Structures are given as C-alpha cells and as structure tokens.
C-alpha cells in the first residue's frame, strides 16, 4: 500500500505489528530509493488524540517525528528506521567480560540521554526491549510501538529507573555478584533512587571496572560475538559451494561412471616419462 503526504510518498514493504489501536509498517520512500522509515498507523481516534497531546506536552522532543499526516480514518506518524539487532542477543551470548558489559550499559544510558523521544515513548521502548546493539557496541532505540501500552504520565524518572533495570540485566549475565556496578544498581533500583539519566550515567562511570588485558580466548570469543552475522554469511556461502561440488561429483559419476576430477589424483603417476609405474 502507498501513503502520500506533502513531503513524501511511502510504499509499505513489511508489516511488523498489528494492534488494537495502531499498526507498525516499514516503508520505503519512492522519492529516495533505499531510504526506509517506521510508520505508526494509528487507527483508534482516542489513541490518536492522546498521541498528539503527548507531542504537544513535549515541544522540545518532537524531533523523532519526521512527518505526520492523515490517511483516511488513520493518523500516520513517520519515524526513523532502525535495523533490528536486539540487545537480547548480547544476553544470550553470555559474554563474560565485565568491562564490555559495563560499556554497553553506559552506551544504553547515553542513547537515552541523546534520544529525542518524548518520555512516555522512551519508557515504552525500554519496557518492550526496542533496544538494538550495533557491531561497535553502540546502542540504537527502535520505534516499533504498541501505543495501547503507553503511559502518558511517565517522565524522566520512570525512564531512568527502567533503563537502570535493563543495565542490571546486562551485568547479571556478564559479571560476578561482587561487581561494584551491579551491587550499586541492586541497592538503588528498589529505592527508585534515579531521578535522571545523568545520575545513572554518573554512577556507572564511577563504579565501572578498569579494562584489563584480556586473554586470547576471551578476545576471540568477543570478536566472534561482534561479527556473528558476517561469520554466518561466510559459513553459508561455504556450505552452498560445498553442496554444489557434491552435486557436480554425483552427476559426473552418474554420467561418466566415475568422477573425472579424481583422475588427476589416481592417474597422474601411472607413467613418468617413458617408464610405466604399473609394471
């Protein structure tokens, strides 16, 4: 389906979410090939009014909205596109490197500080794990939202506490219980002590371990986790090439009765010069 506004013509390429009050569609701009956007299609009138009121409440944090226009009975909100690479992949990898885990946690807090999302949307992104880890360990915040779950009363305090819980999750799978950052978060999160992202960032900065020299096994493991997508592609192509070679050999055996390629190895030394090696 195509959606037209005064500034762009968007073609839907993938439906990623369908909910009671809104859908989420990844669209490509026909006027700029290869440029993608995340489009919130708000179909519920009350939800649309709530969303617009929220934007009005945060006039300095509207940079997340690229375009806003009506389409039939729906309100379309055009936002940026973030390539999905879920932070939970980092959890599953179970990287036992405290310095790296703390660095990723701080990058998450930094991404929240730099975000232009209104706080209700930012808290929703954190709660629904719309957090994506780049290969360089920097963090992007995605825009796939179920607006029915949005709490318009949320402010920076609620967002900071939610972010602190995510950082704690990262540390829990990567460091031991004596880690200073983890102990500090375990102490302050139940008390809801964080009123801002900067307080959280400051605490992590003071408590984080100094990076030491890592062993070769840890370096190789971390390199493998950071480059897992590239390694998978290489292994996939190697597997395809090997499969083609096997098919060629099978067909050669069916057609010729043997495999001509193997003659290079079996017949090369039957005769050297004028002397036969078979006598």
Question: What key phrases describe this protein's structure?
Answer:
alpha+beta, 279 residues, 6-stranded antiparallel β-sheet, two-stranded antiparallel sheet, 46% helix, Phosphorylase Kinase, domain 1, 3 domains
Describe the structure.
Strands 1-2-3-4-6-5 form a six-stranded antiparallel β-sheet. The model has no long low-confidence stretch (mean pLDDT about 85). The chain is an alpha+beta fold. It has helices spanning about 45-55, 90-95, 100-115, 120-125, 155-170, 180-190, 195-205, 215-225, 230-255, 260-265, and strands at about 1-5, 10-20, 20-30, 35-40, 65-70, 75-80, 130-135, 140, 270, 275. It folds into three domains: about 1-80, Phosphorylase Kinase, domain 1 (2-Layer Sandwich); about 90-215; about 225-270, no CATH class. Helix 4 (about 120-125) runs parallel beside helix 5.
Q: Secondary-structure element sequence?
A: EEEEHEEHHHEEHHHHHHEE
Span between termini: 77 Å
The number of helical elements comes to 10
Structural Rg: 27 Å
Beta strand %: 15-25%
Using the alpha-carbon principal axes, give the shape. Answer: flat
Helix content estimate: 40-55%
Largest sheet: 6 strands, antiparallel
As residue ranges, the low-confidence spans are none
Outline the secondary-structure elements.
Elements: E1 2-4, E2 9-18, E3 22-29, E4 36-42, H1 45-57, E5 65-71, E6 74-79, H2 88-93, H3 98-114, H4 119-127, E7 131-133, E8 139-141, H5 156-172, H6 180-188, H7 197-207, H8 216-226, H9 228-256, H10 260-266, E9 271-272, E10 275-276
Helix pairs in contact: 3-5, 3-7, 4-5, 5-6
